[in-house]
Amino acid sequence: MREIVLDTETTGLDPKKGHRLIEIGGIEMVNRIPTGKEFHRFINPQRDVPREAQEIHGIATEFLYDKPLFRDVVREFLAFVGDDVLVIHNAQFDIMFLNYELGLVGEKPLSFDRVVDTLAIARRRHPAGPNTLDALCKRYSIDNSQRTKHGALVDSLLLAEVYVELLGERQAAFGLQSSSANASASQRGGARRGAAMVRPEPLAARIGQADIDAHRSFVEKMKTSALWLRFWGETPAT
User: Fold this and answer.
1) Is the peptide bond between 130 and the residue preceding it cis, with omega within 30 degrees of 0?
2) Over the stretch 140-176, which tens digit does the pLDDT of each residue have?
3) What count of Cα atoms within 13 Å lies in the side-chain half-sphere of residue 164?
4) Active-site residue 89, yes or no?
5) Residue of 19, 57, 150, 215 marked catalytic
6) Using alpha carbons only, how large is the chain's radius of gyration in Å?
7) Are strands 2-10 and 21-30 parallel, antiparallel or unpaired?
8) Which residues sit opposite 88 in a β-bridge?
């Protein structure tokens, strides 16, 4: 199952008041595991970025002067998200801005039917809150030390980990932020975390002697092409 974890940054809170999209970040997940495929673009909003917005995400008006317009990246964006599920925190906000921008360039809006709102999931699981992305990272011991300000791609990476935790499906060594470090440690012979426990008693055999004899008879008919004969240390009957 393919899902896209998505986040945006904007110049304000309401596109109807002239605010625009300035950053889109997304990562691809298949079966809840990141594939490494990403989409990240800064966008020229053709307006200034208010100081209060810049204090949140750190993106200045001057930085966006030479960035592409939304219409220049829309086809690439739509190709990346395809028709797959969009995983977004506080999804109504991001979808509102994305659909506003899509409407301006004559594209169809994104259906909310394909959206998973992680904020709604978090509110059901943790009704006492808080359920901001930072609060959820803290709750699930996810390292968000790189998140000194909001950023669409960084937030998407963090949200991917939070999403798996919210669903109770955390994969072994999921570590979006530390996968490279874990790989390096493994190459250096470092110990692996979460080693499998040894079963105190072996499971009872589910194959009887009749099954073993039937398999041996079948293999011997395959003669020298049978891989199992290498382990038996025997030559096929002629």
Assistant:
1) yes
2) 999 988 775 678 999 999 999 999 999 987 643 444 5
3) 23
4) no
5) 150
6) 26
7) antiparallel
8) 117
